[in-house]
Amino acid sequence: MIDKNELKKLLIEIINDKNIREDSITDDTKLIGEEGLFFDSIDVLELIVQLEKKYGIKIKDNDIIQEKFKTFGSFYNFVSENEKK
Amino acid sequence: MKKNKVYISNFSSVSALGIHNKETLISLNNKKLNYTIYGSKFPYPVFSIDKLIENYKFESNNLIKNAKTALILLKNIEDSFINKGDIPLFVATSTGGIKETEERYKDIIINNTDYPLFKWHFFNEISNSIKKEYPDIFKESFTFSTACSSSGHSILQAFNLIQNGIIDRAVIIGVDILSLTTMIGFDSLKLVSHTITKPLSNKRDGLTLGEGGGVLLLESKPDSDPIAEIVAISSNSDGYHISSPDPDGIYQKECIERTLQMANINKEDISYINAHGTGTPMNDEVEIKAIKSIFKHKPIVTSLKGFIGHTLGASAVTELSISLLMLKEKTIFQVPDFEDPIDKELIPEKSIQIEDIKYFLKNSFGFGGNNVSIIIKRLL
Amino acid sequence: MKNACFFIKDISIINSFVKEREDIIKLFNNNFFSDPSQWDIGLHTDSFSFLQDSIDSPLKKRMSKISLGIYNVLQKGPGSNIEEDDEIYLISSFAEIDTTDQIIKNIIIDDANLVSPTLFHNSVHNTPLSYWTIINKRHNYCATISDGLDTNISFINWLKYRAQLCKIKKNFIIASGEENSIFFKLDKTTKKNIVSSFCAYKICCSEKGFRYLGEFSSLEEILKTASFKEAKYVFCSINEFHKIKDKKVLTEYPLVFDNPTGIVFRLALPFYLGINEKTVIIESHLHKFYMYEVLL
């Protein structure tokens, strides 16, 4: 099982916004889209690279991102289920 | 003030298609594409020139690959410039000596080896190698580097000076080589096709990197009948995103339209467009959209990147050179097994014979939204 | 034909100890540019958070030191006076070298098969100008000239030609700078103190300002010219600094140390300082010398 805080730390690093800290993120926090924490597609790409490096998860499909990265909760579940290390 | 015409007196290219014009033409006629799988660090196709250049030897030892490629290009057109005194040199590259740095980096860090990075990593090593080979000809040089539109800028800068009589001639040389930084970098941006690039096809899923370069000799007073004339060239910025084009293509469109205006020709006079056509979903969609919004008469549109890959900073001058070759042959070549064009009316599915094409457009759109468009008039 | 004259205005020079014009004037009044005892490389620190503070865009989190520096000098200097048709040039010897070094380290030392997408798109040489156009939603012509240790001579020769287009293409913007990086320490064969320092300005065709006087084969030749003899001030590189006597000799060296693009800063200094007396500017490269005269 992946530590939730570890995953939050990863997100914080990428988002790189002084106002967003680990305690700002709950399971319902939106990640992508207009109200999401991610600024743009580059942030998402950074996350994809980190997921591959840290958890061995390769993402090829954009649809997966739209579906699974909607909230932190769905994102966490996705990573836990697909972790390859 | 009277404007001079800017003629292309000679040209050449080095790419996966071959060294210089004859070999390139033969390969264009082949039904096979010259790509290989790079290696374990990057297990995807690339259009390499290693085999092509390995037997070339120059007096200088230890040439970086970009410099070697540049010297081969100059050798190919040497007769045209050798007796014309000093010629300003406009270089373009986005890689310089990076491949050689990568190869020595571990040794430098772990074993503290001496390797003159200041001399060998940066872009001036290319022009310095050229100056060493031709000390009486190339004395002044400038290297332009703006990602994928780099050689477009070299051409533009030289064009402006020649057109306004500030210099009489210039040599433009654009070179780029494969490096782990560019291969892995583009892959990290999810822009690389893991199968093979299919520019301007609905089946496209990314670019394939290539290497090589192109050279042009530009003159206002050529000795003999020049091959072509650069009629107009302009450049602008999208001001939109660091690695994707503005989805509406407004500024690409504006760049093309301004170039048309400068050329003082009708849109219908453009019979062929050599697209930037990288094969990424976004680039090709936006570029075709921009083209369709301007040109209602259905010019032929193809991309050479299916044959030689994306040669980054060298792409504009390399592809312009190969386009001149194709048009001289009265054939627009299409890659074998091309399928499902984005636009059936503009993009041919097979190589086609053409009537004389007088004017063509070359687009070059770089990272950060740096756009260059060039209009060329064929004379021979 | 006499070479064209051009004026430099809307100048900004920024590094870790210089932010405003007053800072430069204060330094000048304290003989900073002519007193080697004040030349302390320790003045150049790597604290650049202030460069981020002034940028009103979430993109700033991604910008490298050089992108931040160039952005700041463009905004503070020519910024509000940059017109649609103005061409913008970045003159940088090493450009995004620190970013490139990080990528190579990732790939070669850490054996990564993927790198940060941000780092990669930042490694492109034109990036600092791209960020400026993107954040300000501008569409100007942008290009970068980069030639390592030879960037000074590339600049001088290119400027010589580009300035002659003044009557047709009027103004253009120059931005220049380098960022410090550990990459430079990896070259054991060459010791160069490269510091993070940035400048930007607008060059306009004008009746007064500075004029390029050409290439000379020795410093002695320059010293014999009427322009040099009539000049009160001489701005030169560190190489000439100790060789010229009987004039007020200044150098921008403490602002830029061994950055090859010092000449870009040097050209602007007489204008920035508002020096009204006749001035000459000298640069050397390999065994040749180059001179400009300035009259404001």
Report on the structure:
- The complex is a heterotrimer of chains A (85), B (380) and C (296).
- Chain A is an all-alpha fold and 85 residues long.
- Chain A has helices at residues 4-15, 41-55, 62-68, 72-82.
- In chain A, helix 1 (4-15) runs antiparallel to helix 2.
- The termini of chain A are close together.
- By secondary structure, chain B is α/β, with parallel strands linked by helices.
- The longest helix of chain B has 17 residues, at 65-81.
- Chain B starts with 5 loop residues before the first strand and ends with a strand.
- Chain C is built from 13 helices and 10 strands.
- A 10-stranded mixed sheet of chain C has the order 3-2-4-5-1-6-10-9-7-8, with helices on both faces.
- At the B-C interface, helix 4, helix 5, helix 6, strand 6 and helix 7 of B face helix 4, helix 5, helix 6, strand 3 and helix 7 of C.
List the helices and strands and how they pair.
The complex is a heterotrimer of chains A (85), B (380) and C (296).
Chain A: H1 4-15, H2 41-55, H3 62-68, H4 72-82
Chain B: E1 6-15, E2 18-19, H1 20-29, E3 36-39, E4 42-46, H2 50-53, H3 65-81, E5 89-92, H4 98-111, H5 117-120, H6 124-133, E6 141-144, H7 150-163, E7 169-176, H8 180-188, E8 212-219, E9 228-237, H9 250-263, E10 270-274, H10 281-294, E11 300-302, H11 305-308, H12 315-328, E12 331-332, E13 352-353, E14 359-366, E15 370-378
Chain C: E1 5-15, H1 21-29, H2 49-53, H3 65-76, E2 87-91, H4 97-109, H5 117-122, H6 127-136, E3 142-145, H7 151-162, H8 166-169, E4 172-178, E5 197-205, E6 209-216, H9 219-223, H10 226-230, E7 233-235, H11 238-241, E8 248-250, H12 253-256, H13 262-273, E9 279-285, E10 288-295
Parallel strand pairs in C: 2-3, 2-4, 7-8, 7-9
Antiparallel strand pairs in C: 1-5, 1-6, 4-5, 6-10, 9-10
